[in-house]
């Protein structure tokens, strides 16, 4: 692992922490050795007296809720095939559109997923890590071109690929971990892109891409459905549609921002419905599993009361685009249709850029989710920007909104990731109201660190993130009666973070990508998460909850350095805290736990 380099320059608050540390050490130096937990509590108390107050937080709204999740609550962690597997051309695996993009050198630092975490070979280690954390569920994805090299079954099946997922699933089951399988996490077979335009394939009719996705889904149900009871058809179709076929910075790099995303989304929704009905008609009775889709959405909060409609429009264009057809009535949200119709008029078009579903299609789409999969990371502040016609319209301008971030929201390493825990509670409440109180599985939530020297192993800010976000999920569950059934941490491992390559780390476990054996190291957050799972929340009176109570104030004040534009913030906090707080804390805690 990397060597420790100490920060050259200390911000004022850090001096406060240091002073606190020395103070508490000297106070304890009356000859007696303090009992670890007392020492830690005392230490934290003194130290936190020096912490500045972060204006991003509200005492009442952000208060710690004590209590536990429902008994059958699902705790899980997630990965995706291209991000962890490597073995990109082992046996007959075909190339995916992400292999193509990465091999063109389009990723930060020219990184590729060729080896990634090498989970294709090291999957038993991954399973062991989950076992060690006490996780009973694992969300992973299957690589379509690893199963069908061209994407089409008639061209041949890659038996080695089929066997790989059999081994992974068996390893999970033996270790009492339930698989939750995503059919499509962005790695479309390149041949399908070349032959049919991928999800742009003749979008207005039932076309070959729907059938091919259906064939692929059927093959997976047939081969794995005896052991897999949770299926997620698509991961974040919003990203595939907008970044893949609209802006085109993600694979397959199709740049058509006026219409590409709407066509692709249309095809994805129809492909999802197809896969759902195949399960319903051919497998459900025998296998008894569930099929859903995972949608991502940032919460949109109005900047001023006058922006309330704009914020709602933002969420409808984001989540509603997919959720409204699937979970409500087979069709796009009303506000999307009327907005796009008005734009067509303004632009002198005879038809809307938003395609229409036929009545039969609406019927077949509506209600095709046994659960509602949600990926959520962040929140934006929305302002109304209605309604200036512009020359080159795109999905972003179509919404007639402006987006920004409150100046005091702490940030993670990913440029788009602002830490706003209460956003998830609002979003969960919105889903409950809007889509008829579905069972919601949070299928991703997490926070990135930079890849930096020293490596962030005492990842206090990730601990804070999980602590605050899961507590907000518990508020949604226990106070707002939202049917949240699952919480999934993204990610089990540091991995290939798409265009950012290995420069952003989301893992509960550190992976050294310079080490040919890709050794995994647990970060402090994995210990925290283990305790969270064991306690099923924050039960009154438990040692874990006491620890969380002590951390709560720290977590709500910590990222001040970054807020003030001090770029090294995350590392300063982490390295100082490893020395003065996290290490004694972890030792103390391991003695108790
Ligand atoms: C999700 N954005 O993607 C994906 O499901 C994961 O594969 C990914 O690693 C994770 O979130 C963290 O990024 C996103 O640019 C990718 O806003 C990009 C964005 C959001 C989510």
TrEMBL record:
Enzyme class name: hydrolase
Spans through the membrane: 12-33
GO MF terms held by the record: hydrolase activity, hydrolyzing O-glycosyl compounds
Gene Ontology BP terms: carbohydrate metabolic process
Record's keyword annotation contains RNA-binding: no
Family annotation (Gene3D superfamilies): Glycosidases (3.20.20.80)
Transcription regulation keyword on record: no
Superkingdom classification of source: Eukaryota
Assigned keywords, A-Z: Glycoprotein, Glycosidase, Hydrolase, Membrane, Transmembrane, Transmembrane helix
Subunit structure comment from the entry: Homodimer.
UniProt name for this protein: beta-glucosidase
């Amino acid at each position: 692992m990397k060597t420790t380099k100490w920060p050259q320059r200390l911000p004022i608050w850090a001096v406060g922490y240091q002073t606190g540390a020395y103070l508490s050490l000297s106070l304890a130096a009356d000859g007696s050795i303090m009992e670890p937990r007392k020492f830690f509590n005392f230490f934290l108390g003194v130290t936190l007296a020096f912490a500045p107050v972060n204006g991003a937080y509200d005492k009442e709204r952000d208060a710690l809720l004590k209590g536990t999740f429902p008994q059958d609550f699902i705790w899980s962690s997630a990965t995706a095939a291209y991000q962890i597997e490597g073995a990109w051309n082992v046996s007959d695996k075909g190339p995916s559109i992400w292999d193509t993009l990465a091999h063109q050198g389009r990723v930060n630092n020219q990184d590729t997923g060729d080896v990634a975490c090498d989970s294709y070979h090291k999957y038993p280690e991954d399973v062991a890590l989950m076992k060690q954390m006490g996780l009973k569920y694992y969300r992973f994805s299957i690589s379509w071109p690893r199963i069908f090299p061209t994407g089409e079954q008639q061209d041949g099946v890659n038996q080695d690929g089929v066997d790989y997922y059999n081994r992974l699933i068996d390893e999970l089951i033996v270790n009492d971990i339930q698989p939750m399988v995503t059919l499509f996490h962005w790695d479309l077979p390149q041949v399908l892109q070349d032959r049919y335009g991928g999800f742009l394939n003749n979008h207005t009719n039932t076309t070959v891409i729907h059938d091919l996705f259906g064939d692929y889904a059927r093959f997976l149900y047939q081969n794995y459905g005896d052991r897999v009871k949770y299926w997620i058809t698509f991961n974040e179709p919003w990203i595939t549609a907008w970044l893949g076929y609209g802006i085109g910075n993600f694979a397959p790099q199709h740049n058509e921002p006026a219409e590409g995303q709407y066509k692709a989304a249309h095809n994805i929704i129809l492909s999802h419905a197809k896969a759902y009905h195949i399960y319903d008609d051919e497998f459900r009775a025998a296998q008894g599993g569930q099929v859903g889709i995972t949608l991502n959405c940032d919460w949109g909060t109005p900047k001023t009361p006058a922006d309330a409609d704009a914020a709602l429009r933002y969420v409808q264009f984001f989540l509603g685009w997919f959720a409204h057809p699937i979970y409500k009535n087979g069709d796009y949200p009303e506000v999307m249709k009327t907005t796009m119709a008005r734009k067509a008029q303004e632009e002198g078009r005879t038809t809307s850029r938003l395609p229409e579903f036929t009545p039969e299609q609406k019927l077949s789409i509506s209600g095709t989710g046994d659960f509602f999969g949600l990926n959520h990371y962040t929140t934006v502040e929305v302002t109304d920007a209605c309604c200036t016609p512009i020359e080159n319209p795109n999905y972003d301008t179509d919404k007639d909104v402006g987006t920004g971030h409150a100046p005091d929201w702490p940030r993670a390493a990913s440029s788009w990731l602002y830490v706003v825990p209460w956003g998830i509670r609002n979003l969960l409440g919105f889903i409950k109201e809007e889509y008829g109180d579905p069972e919601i599985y949070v299928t991703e939530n997490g926070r990135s660190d930079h890849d930096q020297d020293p490596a962030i192993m005492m990842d206090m800010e990730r601990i804070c993130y999980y602590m605050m976000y899961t507590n907000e999920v518990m508020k949604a569950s226990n106070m707002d009666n939202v049917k949240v059934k699952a919480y999934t941490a993204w990610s089990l491992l540091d991995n290939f973070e798409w265009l950012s390559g290995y420069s952003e780390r989301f893992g509960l476990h550190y992976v050294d990508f310079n080490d040919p054996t890709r050794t995994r190291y647990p970060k402090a957050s994995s210990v925290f998460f283990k305790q969270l799972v064991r306690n099923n929340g924050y039960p009154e009176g438990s040692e874990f909850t006491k620890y969380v109570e002590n951390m709560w104030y720290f977590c709500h004040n910590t990222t001040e350095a970054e807020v003030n534009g001090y770029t090294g913030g995350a590392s300063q906090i982490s390295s100082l805290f490893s020395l003065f707080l996290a290490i004694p804390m972890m030792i103390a805690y391991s003695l108790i736990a």
